């Protein structure tokens, strides 16, 4: 029996108050996610249950009960409060997947701060634009990432506190820098929980668009309602599960389903803070007897590449349910996983903006490999005609994925950018920015994004950000960045550039430019290929035609080129 039971019955009788009741929340009550994920679980008598099994990159193991989680988050919360952090201050988390990252997330929410998690792999420029945009007041980081923070701190007058969770006293602390050690701090038994309302802001995740700087997607505490129920019905978590979400909390999957969903249900989760290898991952599943595994297509394709033999070296019989998110999950991957693990990966579709799973293959429902499945109960999904923005009823006809606004986890705005936020709505629909079609049983089939954003291994990269960073290199005159097909990551970043006079194309320069981007932005945003050109294709008004370069990479019809310069 699955948690959701009959999908059709759930759709018919759906009301979000199912989740509200289970969580003991009445409309108008306070609803603090931090409290729900720690204190409430202890009150339910589960203080001694393991909340987190953690394995570090050098193999060190730690485990924490829900009571440990409650105390650690109280301790960090009161440290932040003593520094003067007040509700709605932005507190950035800039750490590897160490326990302090997970605890600081809950701690920030407990005191009403807006938590801003960022990938620790970000270079200084990626970090800077996001901290500047958010007006971040405090950043919690580690020694190993401090140099990047120091490099930009002077340009961020609002950044008052830089908290280092593993300071060893051997390095001098500069202005604004504070040392905090969870192991040395006195555990705080009780703190006053910020009385968050349904619409109190909670998390600020940055996501990339085609133009302009990354956008801060602002979520509220009420998002818990969707995150809890989707975790229960899609990820099918139960009391005795050992859950592993492979996503980094710098990405929305790592917070909605790597922190909030499982902990609000009082479920034990595992974190592996090390790089990918098939052996390391299978060993981790075997060791912790993981039962539910939520991952991403790029990882699954990498596992496929590693082959069937390595699977046999490990005992993976604990697994009972698998799901995937972030990019198209090809039918072959679903069929392969069924063959080698005895379980198909169930595809789920959603976005930073939606805050929770929107479309998915539900446990117990007929799975069509390659399809994203159907909308979550209570979610009204459609495919819209791109010209009239009215729903398409004809099966197989491609249109724009859209949802009727109003589910609990939906973003409430883009930070400081209400214009961009309102552009997401047409005719009363929220436009996801993706294209898909419905088949004759109303399953969704993903076609592609409706913009130029590059989805590389599940991470969205803005061509604009990479182009801007390229222009800062002394040799680069012009640049255009597009996606290029890739077997494992589906898409990778490719840059076309023209050089300034005095520079000649060569391999060393290519490597140097790649590294320049990696350091400034991140390894994901780094072009995997750079092609030198004499001039870039442009429209008559001088706009670089990315579309044309993109089509060339994908071997597609080039389409309308009537506005091209060189015709
Ligand atoms: C893409 C991730 C195909 C899509 C939680 C979406 C997918 C964007 C799927 C959001 C899927 C996500 N199949 N494409 N199952 N899931 N996407 O904001 O383009 O990082 O709009 O959130 O990823 O990415 P984001």
The helix tally amounts to 18
Task: Kindly identify the CATH topology of the largest domain.
Answer: Rossmann fold
The appropriate CATH architecture of the largest domain is 3-Layer(aba) Sandwich
How many strands?
Answer: 27
**Helix-strand category:** alpha/beta
Shape: globular
What count of domains describes the coordinates?
2
The proportion of residues forming helix, as a percent range, comes to 25-40%
CATH class of the largest domain: Alpha Beta
CATH homologous superfamily classification of the largest domain: ANL, N-terminal domain
Mean pLDDT: 96
Distance N to C terminus: 64 Å
Strand order of the largest sheet: 2-1-11-10-12-13-14-15-16
Radius of gyration: 23 Å
Can you give a write-up of this model?
By secondary structure, this protein is of the alpha/beta class. It has two domains: 7-438, ANL, N-terminal domain (Rossmann fold, 3-Layer(aba) Sandwich); 452-554, ANL, C-terminal domain (GMP Synthetase, Chain A, domain 3), CATH 3.30.300. Helix content is 31%, strand content 23%. The protein contains 18 helices and 27 strands. The protein has a nine-stranded mixed β-sheet, with helices on both faces. Helix 5 (66-83) crosses helix 6 (99-110). The longest helix has 18 residues, at 66-83. The protein is globular, with a radius of gyration of 23 Å. 48% of the residues are buried. The site of 5'-O-[(S)-ethoxy(hydroxy)phosphoryl]adenosine has 23 residues, from helix 10, strand 14, strand 21 and strand 22.
